[in-house]
């Protein structure tokens, strides 16, 4: 079970992913860092950065640029199996919108939406959900099956 995630300098997503306790790889924060290339199926955990685009109409890109870059690599894109998105419910209808966009563009299920660093309940549900559904989601590496 591999988790791939992006997290900005505030590191809310990083803290959430660490609590899950699965092997994890981080998409680099800066364009200048070497790009991440993965070699097994993964669930992507991605924070939303649209700035409430539906209301403000000012930032229409809820998915961080570094995540777009990672997914533009066809090999990386072929291995995504599910998406989880973080956000802030203050953004109303745009809460966790990055997950909707990634799910639609990559054709994978949007399996969970959580706020900021996630609660203990979020961690429990995501851990259980991913573990119980690893096979049906295709999250088991071929070598292990
Ligand atoms: C500039 C900015 C725009 C944001 N836009 C949204 C948004 O449109 N929807 C949402 O749910 N959360 C939004 N958020 C909240 C972040 O997704 C949330 O704080 C997240 O936990 C950040 O994760 P990170 O610390 O790992 O980068 C925004 C945060 C910032 C700073």
UniProtKB/TrEMBL annotation:
InterPro entries: Flavoprotein-like_sf, RNR_Ib_NrdI_bac, RNR_NrdI. Gene3D superfamilies: 3.40.50.360. Pfam families: Flavodoxin_NdrI (PF07972). One of its GO terms (molecular function) is FMN binding. HAMAP family: NrdI. Probably involved in ribonucleotide reductase function. Belongs to the NrdI family. This is Protein NrdI. The lineage of its organism: Bacteria, Bacillati, Actinomycetota, Actinomycetes, Mycobacteriales. The gene is nrdI.
């Amino acid at each position: 079970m591999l988790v791939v995630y992006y997290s900005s300098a505030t590191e809310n997503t990083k803290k959430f992913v660490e609590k899950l306790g699965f092997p994890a790889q981080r998409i680099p924060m800066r364009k200048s860092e070497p790009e991440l290339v993965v070699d097994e199926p993964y669930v992507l955990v991605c924070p939303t950065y649209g700035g409430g685009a539906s209301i403000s109409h000012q930032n229409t890109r809820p998915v961080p640029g570094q995540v777009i870059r990672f997914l533009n690599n066809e090999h990386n894109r072929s291995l995504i199996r599910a998406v989880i998105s973080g956000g802030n419910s203050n953004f109303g209808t745009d809460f966790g919108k990055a997950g909707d966009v990634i799910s639609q563009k990559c054709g994978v299920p949007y399996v969970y939406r959580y706020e900021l660093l996630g609660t203990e309940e979020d961690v429990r549900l995501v851990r259980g959900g991913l573990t119980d559904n690893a096979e049906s989601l295709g999250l088991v590496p071929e070598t292990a099956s």
